[in-house]
Amino acid sequence: MNNSFQFNAIATIQSPYKEKFGIPRQPGLAKSLNSRIVFLPEYTRPEIVRGLEGCSHIWVLFIFSECIDKGWTPTVRPPRLGGNKRMGVFSTRSPFRPNPIGLSPVELISIESGNGKLELVISGADLLDGTPIVDIKPYLPYSDQIPEAVFELATEITTLDRDVFYSEQALQAIARSEEKFNQPVRQQINELLNCDPRPAYKKDDEEKIYGVRLYDMNIRFSISATDIRVLQIEQVD
């Protein structure tokens, strides 16, 4: 039996997430943020996605390309558990795996083809810009959804659901970005920050100011027990 396999990427992701910090830890938590699956030249024939227009959601299989050189360990510290408890790597979704393959369900917004290009517009992805895609499959509600499924350590979605307040400078920067990208940037920032990108061990430090990259913006923010405050938005080249 052959125990070694080699795969080629079929596409890459164009995503507003320009660095790992700040990406939602699971798919579907920031649904207003769109990404694009851009097929590589050898996979741009429109018939390759024939029938996919009937799907509302798809599975995206990808490579944790930023983690390949860092290796893996048998146990990891999941952020959901505060970063203090070790779990077996196969009981987590850690990117540091023997085979660094990820799997995300996303909503399929549209299929765009023409001029030798083929792209899928998706929402709710949790993927770094430039992530290589190795496969795409349709999401089948009758078999992929398992209502009785249980995982005792992760029983519910954990988001903050807090009001987000903006400085005047931040509001002006958002207005420019919404015009530039034709996206609901303020809503997207609200969703992203309510996913709470802070490291688990710093969540009690309400004075700490963080920065997260989105599009060409560096968003400076703080999170307290009652609200989220966007203090400044810097343009990044």
TrEMBL record:
InterPro entries from the UniProt entry? TrmO-like_N, TrmO_C, UPF0066_cons_site, YaeB-like, YaeB-like_sf, YaeB_N_sf
Question: Gene3D superfamilies recorded for this chain?
Answer: YaeB-like
Q: Does the keyword S-adenosyl-L-methionine apply?
A: yes
Q: Which residues form the signal peptide?
A: none
- Residues annotated as domain TsaA-like: 7-148
Claim: S-adenosyl-L-methionine is one of the keywords in the record: yes
Q: Which domain of life is it from?
A: Bacteria
Record-level Gene Ontology MF annotations: tRNA (L-threonylcarbamoyladenosine(37)-C2) methyltransferase activity
Keyword list (alphabetical) reads: S-adenosyl-L-methionine
Q: Which residues cross the membrane?
A: none
The cross-references to Pfam families, in alphabetical order and at most eight, read: TrmO_C (PF18389), TrmO_N (PF01980)
Q: Which family does it belong to?
A: Belongs to the tRNA methyltransferase O family.
Protein name from the UniProt record: Paral putative regulator
- Give the species: Neptuniibacter caesariensis
Q: What is the lineage of its organism?
A: Bacteria, Pseudomonadati, Pseudomonadota, Gammaproteobacteria, Oceanospirillales
